[in-house]
Amino acid sequence: MRVLAAMSGGVDSAVAAARMVAAGHDVTGVHFALSRNPQSYRTGARGCCSIEDSHDARRAADRLGIPFYVWDLSEEFADEVIDDFVSEYAAGRTPNPCLRCNEKIKFVAVLRRGIALGFDLVATGHYARLVEGAEGLELRRAVDQAKDQSYVLGMLDAEQLRHCAFPLGDSLKPDVRAEAEQLGLRLAQKPDSHDICFIPDGDTAGFLERRLGAQPGEIVDEAGAVLGEHAGTHRFTVGQRRGLRVGTPAADGRPRYVLSISPVDRRVVVGPRESLDIGVIDAIRPTWTQQQPEGPWEGFVQVRAHGEPLAAEVVTGDEGDETLRVRLRTPATGIAPGQGIVLYDGDRVVGSATIDRTTAATAGADA
Question: Which residues form the tRNA-specific 2-thiouridylase MnmA-like C-terminal domain (predicted)?
């Protein structure tokens, strides 16, 4: 098969490409230039897509003896990921840019271009497994649970998965690094990237303020009493405890948390931890990795990349319905609109959606 190996400049994607070469495929490496003004070097483990990363990817491709290209996807990345990130925060939601990047850039845009060029598969260094099941190809959690990335792949549909390969799904991360050493890849011990790649200094609030400007407002309690002021709702997310700068302590002395965000009137509502308990999640724009499940079904949901699976009943509408409802079996905290929710049947990814609204656990039974 003709395989397009996405090479980020990290150890995982390099070993994934090496395995596709070893399997006898006709492999071409490609690095995605996602920044319009890439920095020369990474800041430790922060950021990615730097000039340093592209050089590391090229050296790995040379070592493997495969052709290598750099694709400029910076315009698509700015439109689909960065602009979406800013607009979601402006609307009081908390987006996950990695989900959006995988959905719109690393797979949709790359698959479209790769297939047009005659490639059969796109191989990446994600830790997830593709297994042939009774109903077709199944996306499953990785063997290395600490590195599992099935959550950020949950938005892929059956047709997209048919053109994907995840060669590292059955491997442990230490074994991947050891394999890179054996292959003579100089990036074998390169740190993994984390945080938001287009905010390498980690200052999300500062990045958003440069885009949105200062938008001061009030911090209020659940009764509407004003407790303090803030510089912009984009500085907050549901469940946040630190950085509230509320001058008036709670009557019971307990910490306060962000309960909700209203960018229209620039209000941030804070309250006790128990007010964060969520029982029902309404989500929109579902994507299914196979056929859409019929009727209510029992499974698990995950609302963060490395969050705990939560037992739940999932209620779907008719085929083609753009909404679904999740009733959690045990209340969960800090779930914010805008986050992705990925649905699991055991370790199999069923689908995903975007959280639109949450209902308190006390109201969940009748919601």
Answer: 283-355
